[in-house]
Write a structure and sequence with these properties.
The chain has four helices and four strands; from the N terminus they run ααββββαα. It is of the alpha+beta class. The protein has a domain of about 100 residues. A hairpin with a 4-residue loop joins β1 and β2.
Length: about 140
C-alpha cells in the first residue's frame, strides 16, 4: 500500500460527497479529508449566514443563524452516499450510528490535526481502526503536541 489508499467504489462515492459538500451547504467548506479503508477523517468549516429582521426571506422574527448543524451535515453525507452506493449494488457498506467530533480552537491544534489527517494513510499499519495492525498506537495521538 505504501501509504496510498486505494479507494473502493464505495470509498470513491464517499470522497465525492465530501468534495461536493459546498454544493449542498453553501456556508460549509471542507478544509481537509481522507477516506480510509474503514473510517474517514474530515475537518469541516461551518460558517453562518445572518439574516436581519425584515429580510424578505424571513418572517421578521429576529436575526437567524442559517448555518447547518454538524449533525445535519453528517446525516446528509451518510444518507446521500448510502443512496448512491446502493444504486451501484455495493450493499455491504454500513455507517456507524454516530460520529466523533472535536472543536478545533486554535491554529496550533489545527496544524497538528491537519498533519495527523495527512499522515493517516502512511500510519494505517499502526491505526487502532485497522484490525490487522501489529502495534496499534493510541487513538488520540493527534492530541499530543
Amino acid at each position: 500500500m505504501d501509504g496510498q489508499v486505494q479507494l473502493s467504489g464505495a470509498g470513491k462515492i464517499v470522497a465525492e460527497m465530501w468534495t461536493g459538500l459546498a454544493d449542498r451547504f453553501p456556508n460549509v467548506s471542507v478544509d481537509l479529508f481522507v477516506v480510509m479503508p474503514n473510517h474517514i477523517h474530515v475537518i469541516v468549516n461551518v460558517g453562518a449566514q445572518f439574516i436581519a429582521p425584515g429580510d424578505a426571506q424571513v418572517h421578521s422574527e429576529g436575526a437567524m443563524n442559517r448555518a447547518p448543524m454538524l449533525g445535519q451535515i453528517i446525516r446528509t453525507v451518510k444518507a446521500a452516499s448510502t443512496h448512491r452506493i446502493r444504486q451501484t449494488r455495493d450493499l455491504d457498506i454500513v455507517w456507524q450510528r454516530n460520529y466523533y467530533e472535536h472543536v478545533i480552537r486554535d491554529e496550533e491544534s489545527l496544524k497538528r490535526i491537519r498533519q495527523y489527517i495527512s499522515d493517516n494513510p502512511l500510519r494505517w499499519e499502526l491505526d487502532p481502526e485497522n484490525c490487522d495492525a501489529t502495534s496499534p498506537e493510541s487513538s488520540d495521538i493527534w492530541r499530543v503536541p
